[in-house]
Amino acid sequence: MEKKLAILTSGGDAPGMNAAIRATAKIAESYGFEVYGIRRGYLGMLNDEIFPMTGRFVSGIIDKGGTVLLTARSEEFKQARFREIAANNLKKKGINYLVVIGGDGSYRGANLLYKEHGIKVVGIPGTIDNDICGTDFTLGFDTCLNTILDAMSKIRDTATSHERTILIQVMGRRAGDLALHACIAGGGDGIMIPEMDNPIEMLALQLKERRKNGKLHDIVLVAEGVGNVLDIEEKLKGHINSEIRSVVLGHIQRGGT
What is the DSSP letter of 136? Predict the structure, then answer.
């Protein structure tokens, strides 16, 4: 049987995806595989955007952010009849192995391809959210964390100058890992994550105590899974007297090498 392997990146992009594409392609070639790339994830598999991926294609990408294979969401892929079309696009090229670089949604798709169509799959956990079991840190998490820490350092400067409480909303979907690690590593003064109860009253009491002890500013990390940071800001205003601002770091967290 021919040894043909395809690589795709799916879901949200994460720093390190290009390095993973390059490493996978080179290792696969060294084991005698013919390597293919799939553009735009499962959407590209469905649309037959599958191409032979030479060493030249992955040359010089190790230090680049994003993903050279591009990524996209595909609602159609959630339906069995469309997964069958996608699987057949692989099979007609003789591709019997698939490497999926992505997060939990990408893994669910890969699992269904294996169960329904016998495509042998390997998952490389690439997501800034760090919400994949079986690994301590997912690809992209550390880079994203350092992006947040850099932003925290700058935000603390202005928070101190104006004696403000600043809420920083970070990504993570339903996981609070980014907020938790950033709070610890960056010396945050409060945290709100979906894995624990987050009573506004308790946070307010904590911030009031800081001001009593002579602290001039507060940095609070808010995971996006908790809710809208602007709503949290409004609720907090009813409990503390200090000036409050909110910062949503957004997609800057996804970029970087």
Answer: S
150 a catalytic residue: no
pLDDT at position 55 is 84
Q: What is the reported pLDDT for 36?
A: 98
Residue with tokens 């032979």: 52
Positive or negative torsion for Cα 49, 53, 56, 57: positive
CB distance 143 to 16 below 8 Å = yes
Nearest residue to 98 (alpha-carbon basis) of 42, 43, 16, 22: 42
Structure confidence by residue, pLDDT tens digits, 127-180: 999 999 889 999 999 999 999 999 999 999 999 999 899 999 999 999 999 999
Summarised one tens digit per residue, pLDDT across range 193-242 is 999 988 899 999 999 999 889 898 999 999 999 999 999 999 999 898 88
Find the distance separating the first CA and the last CA of the chain, reported in whole Å: 38
Which of helix, strand or coil describes residue 52? strand
pTM: 0.91
Give CA–CA dist 124/132, Å, rounded: 10
* Locus of tokens 């290792």: 27
Quick one: DSSP state of residue 217? -
List Cα–Cα distances, 240 to 1, 211, 214, 237, 244, in angstroms: 69, 10, 15, 6, 9
Which domains does the chain possess? 4-126 (3.40.50.450), 142-254 (3.40.50.460)
Annotated catalytic residue: which of 13, 48, 104, 129? Answer: 129
Q: How far is CA 189 from CA 144, 185, 216, 217, 223, in A?
A: 20, 11, 12, 9, 14
